[in-house]
Known about the structure:
The chain is mainly α. The protein contains three helices and no strands. It has one domain. The longest helix is centred in the N-terminal third of the chain and has 23 residues, at 4-26. The chain crosses the membrane at residues 6-24, 31-47, 53-70.
Amino acid sequence: MGILLPIVMAISVVLLFFSLFFAISKRSWRALLVSFIASLPISIYFASVNPPFSFLGLTPILLLALTIVFRRQIQKEITQ
Length: 80
């Protein structure tokens, strides 16, 4: 059980950065949604430490807001 947490964190970090880079370069709201989901285990871990690192636990809120913004922009482009 002790090795599971580092493995989950490593997979989450790799998936987070890959999907975030892909989402910004391709302006994909789906990739941002994957990035949001991948950042949840990391944010739960950082939310339990002392400040200022505990503020890194708010990262998924920023990613979710970016997902909503990208989705609305894409829907506006489709309707015009």
